[in-house]
């Protein structure tokens, strides 16, 4: 039985699909699992024994390249599980002879929660559970405990338990941690080495390791894997740290667990302040706090981050 899982982007979303494939492989060891993604995210699947083939599509080459890939790489699958559900992935439904299933995004439920405070049972599901939903009935599986769906990344690098991967950056300012320098200084005082990586500026603090700046994805994953624990904003590198098995503190300011991307797995903590009643202000975060106080992040002081990290690493 040949299965094709499709998720083109983004970094964190692609990582979260790995736990689904790992679970399916354990339940159905005879299944041959392929994945289709954008070429830039193919390193996510390096060294994963349950992934048979990575069909990587270079989107910079346009639609013609995609049609070529579809025609030559997707003809002999029994099932296609579309975990993205965008126009390109839905196209597979009409081209392939495979049985096609897609996941439910719940975009409207998320928008209604932000704008109207309207709750919905779907908002209490983690995205990995939503990714697995369309797989269950066709393959005769059942929904497991969520840790069975933990993402999986494998890198062959040596780990230093004293190194702490720090990623305070995010695509939106209301998801960015504002106390990067103060946190770094506190970690150093406690005998730990902060390792900053990602697309942002590291604080000018003696004792840190600065790996920020544009890097190949494989190199970024190796940097994270070399650390013994992680502190991250709500972002793709947080999911990478979790997939690599690092004890991880996820810092959530303007976003909440209702969007499904929180660190729900063993040896992870979600740090947030539920007293701030204007959260969430947007599904994806904003460039500026609409209430001009940014309390959702400012209340998450470095000592609180360190206290939660110590709960995980026992230092």
From TrEMBL:
Gene Ontology molecular function: any one: ADP-heptose-lipopolysaccharide heptosyltransferase activity
Any one GO BP annotation for this protein: lipopolysaccharide core region biosynthetic process
GO CC annotation terms, alphabetical: cytosol
Alphabetical list of CDD domains matching this protein: GT9_LPS_heptosyltransferase
Transmembrane intervals: none
Keyword Cytoplasm (UniProt): no
Superkingdom, taxonomy of origin: Bacteria
InterPro entries: Glyco_trans_9 (IPR002201), LPS_LOS_Heptosyltrfase (IPR051199)
Keywords in alphabetical order: Glycosyltransferase, Transferase
Coiled-coil region(s): none
Family matches, as Gene3D superfamilies: Glycogen Phosphorylase B
Name this polypeptide is given: Glycosyl transferase family 9
Organism this protein belongs to: Denitrovibrio acetiphilus (strain DSM 12809 / NBRC 114555 / N2460)
